[in-house]
Amino acid sequence: NRRWLLESRPHGAPTADNFRLDTAEIPTPSDGQVLLRTVFLSLDPYMRGRMSDEPSYSAPVELGDVMVGGTVSRVEASKLDGYEEGDWVLGYSGWQDYALSDGTGLTNLGKNPEQPSWTLGVLGMPGFTAYMGLTDIGQPKEGETLVVAAATGPVGATVGQIGKIKGCRVVGIAGGAEKCRHAVETLGFDACIDHRAEDFAEQLKQACPKGIDVYYENVGGKVFDAVLPLLNTAARVPICGLVAGYNSTGLPDGPDRLPLLMGTMLKKRLRMQGFIINQDYGDRFDEFFNEMSGWVKAGKIHYREQMVDGLEQAPDTLIGLLEGKNFGKVVIRVADD
Ligand code: NDP
Q1: What pLDDT does residue 260 have?
Q2: What positions does the domain Enoyl reductase (ER) occupy (predicted)?
Q3: What pLDDT does 105 receive?
């Protein structure tokens, strides 16, 4: 049983030294437990937060513990009612080949699910995040302008496509020409701006001639600085993530811009609200799942997955994800099914 353990806490960007590959015996299930064999492991930006012991909305991974992560597994052996050998299961086994579970937090996907790995993306936590943050907090209306960054990732791509379904003008922000082309040509966004361009702020302004009504915040940093002056009166800003700052070790240099933010919020009567998907909306998953499955089946929502082979690739792939090296939802294929 190969397992990636948290060896040390990063200061700034994580490095390969923060992780250690360990091998242990494959565990045996007791009564009331299942043994799961990981097939797919999801990598997500929140994992950077779990590597740190700063106060947050959930406890950190302890040093020497297995890295946390969402997984799709097969049942290898079961002593738990409702689970049979061979069933596909969505759960949180973490960065390892095998895990025991007593069923807490598991979803049985049955013997033959279509696209089981999609339950880690568009039909799972990231899709749910996009759906609830946009519809409940963002409240997009027909004809409004919606802006979303990290536009080709599982959250951003889904946000923008729901925005199109709701009749918005959708402007994405992504890193590089290839991602921007994908957002427009495949995802159907009206425009997509490269945040690495010298004149990024000016290009964003040109792409939003009527200002911004909903800004779905995934990144923060320079992107937010460019968005703030374009927000319209009564704009909504769901604060979903701030990935541009996850590797920061302190506040940025420069003038204190807090008065600018507060002044803009006051004068434009902005509504900004943070949310943590499972804590705020855990009871609404079925509503999301039904609507999203319908959209995916009808071809209204396109989904791009970046499959990386081998559990040994997990640390480098997570490090790359935080720098925008991924293109689409990152999934590690841990084993053949
Ligand atoms: P992505 O696959 O979109 O990966 C993160 C992306 O962020 C990178 O690919 C990169 O895209 C972009 N990025 C990284 N650094 C910067 C930067 N300095 N400036 C601008 N963009 C940057 O991740 P997800 O779709 O899984 O997650 C998107 C956001 O949603 C994250 O902030 C995540 O933490 C948050 N989230 C929040 C949840 C909640 O409950 N609140 C739940 C799930 C996710 P590019 O190359 O295009 O810039």
Answers
A1: 96
A2: 15-332
A3: 93
Q: Give the pLDDT confidence of 54-94 residue by residue, as tens digits.
A: 989 999 999 999 999 999 999 999 999 999 999 999 999 99
Residue 298 lies inside a defined structural domain of this protein: no
Query: Is there a contact between 244 and 150 (Cβ–Cβ < 8 Å)?
Result: no
222: Cβ contacts below 8 Å, ≥ 6 apart? 195, 200, 244
**CATH of residue 97:** 3.90.180.10
Distance CA 267, CA 96 (A): 51
pTM assigned to the model: 0.96
Tokens of 2: 């190969």
Range of the domain at 273: 125-278
Q: Which residues line ligand 1 (CB under 6 A)?
A: 44-46, 126, 129, 149-150, 152-156, 174-175, 179, 195, 218-219, 221, 223, 240-241, 243-244, 275-277, 321, 324, 326
Same domain, 220 and 131: yes
Beta-bridge mates of residue 310: none
DSSP letter string over 160-199?
Answer: HHHHHHTT-EEEEEESSHHHHHHHHHTT--SEEEETTSTT
Q: Which two tokens stand for residue 217?
A: 């915040």
